[in-house]
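Fig. S4 source data, part A: sequence.
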Amino acid sequence: MNKSTERTLRADAERSVRAILGAAEQVLAQEPGASMEQIAVAAGVARTTVHRRFASRQALLEALATSAARQLAQAVDDGRPDTAPPLVAMHRITANVLQVKSAWAFALELPADPDSEAAILQQDIARRCTTVLERARADKLIDATADLDWVRRVYYALLGAALHGNDDPADPDTVAARIVDTLLHGAGPRT
């Protein structure tokens, strides 16, 4: 087999994996007990293709969680948490995370084995979030005495509230601005 044929096969395999993972997110978000066959139908591939790519339902779920965590980590990276001004980084990261979390809500809620790639990525995301909050505190956007672990947890809660039960069709940038404003200023009057 020549290199061109190998690349074509590899690209086809990657496309089918992406299609399966996307279909799994959609199908399982609606019906968590859906079968591998239902996922295959939604992905537009044969059931055998799903089984060839994923040895078991658990393997599919782990791949789904890992893929979503990678996309979430990329969303954080795209916000330039280490180099953009903290307020800009917070806004960009928030808008990016809202988009990923709304597209991959089921996968991001899957419990991850503590040693899994998904869990390691989630820990890194939390660390990077704290880094941005430290930078924001250094810029006096956050009180010098604030417990940054608490601030991070409040930020996560605001993200969750914005994603769940929000009938407002506002775009991610508008919602991100609301989240960051609420995190930094609360709901009290502006003085």
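Fig. S4 source data, part B ends here. The radius of gyration is 19 Å.
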